Amino acid sequence: MQGTNGSAVKQLFARPLFPSPLRGYDIPDAARLNAALLAVIAERRQTEPGQKVSNEFGWHSGNDLFARPEAPFRTLAAHITATLIALIRETVPAFDLALHDVEGEGWVNVNGKGAFNTPHAHGEYLWSGCYYVSLPDASSHSSGMIEFIENRQVRGLPADLEAPIFSSKFQLRPRSGMMLIFPSYLQHWVYPNQEDAERVSIAFNAKVVTRPRA
């Protein structure tokens, strides 16, 4: 196919279809909150054996973040809830707290050296996210990095050409005090932690339910 110069074709519109938004937020007074979170997480690990979900070799707590009585968990849960409600109001105009409620779950991930999370999604929810409590300095490019995976396969582009719009993955190195929120259908995973220090994060899911009528 040979292109021609001076084409008379007129573009009518350009609209992105089926976008997958990724939002990043800063939590206020994160250093103080993170120190308190690390303390209560250490206490939990003394008595809870942990669960096996997407984690390999790491410690995964129960999914009870929003019901925990400890003050640091309550503070973080309040920040997450307020952010999720604002995001849902922005993206779902008909959402009304008088008619709908937001239900969520959250859990702690502690990945020691060599631990990682396998590719997964949370499709039964609306939004998912993660708050980063403590991340060691990375000695390699991929250590502890989160990667999002495009489920739709794009073909027809030679291997020697790169185009971000057609990329099949997106990598991000989070930092302590950062919170990410993304659609729950979006596949993601966490690269192995290659550092001696532990990688500590708190993940969560949220969905909207209609309140029962009186």
Concise synopsis of the structure shown:
With 214 residues, the protein is an alpha+beta fold.
Structure overview:
The strands form 2 sheets. The chain has a 6-stranded antiparallel β-sheet. It is 18% helix and 29% strand. It is of the alpha+beta class and 214 residues long. The chain has one domain (25-152, 167-210): q2cbj1_9rhob like domain (Jelly Rolls, Sandwich), CATH 2.60.120. It is built from 2 helices and 11 strands, in the order E-H-E-E-H-E-E-E-E-E-E-E-E. Helix 1 (30-47) crosses helix 2 (71-91).
Largest sheet: 6 strands, antiparallel
CATH architecture: Sandwich
Summing up helix and strand content along with how strands pair, one would put the structural category as alpha+beta
What is the tally of helical segments?
2
CATH topology: Jelly Rolls
| Overall number of strands | 11
The CATH class assignment is Mainly Beta
Helix coverage percent: 10-25%
Mean pLDDT, to the nearest integer, reads 91
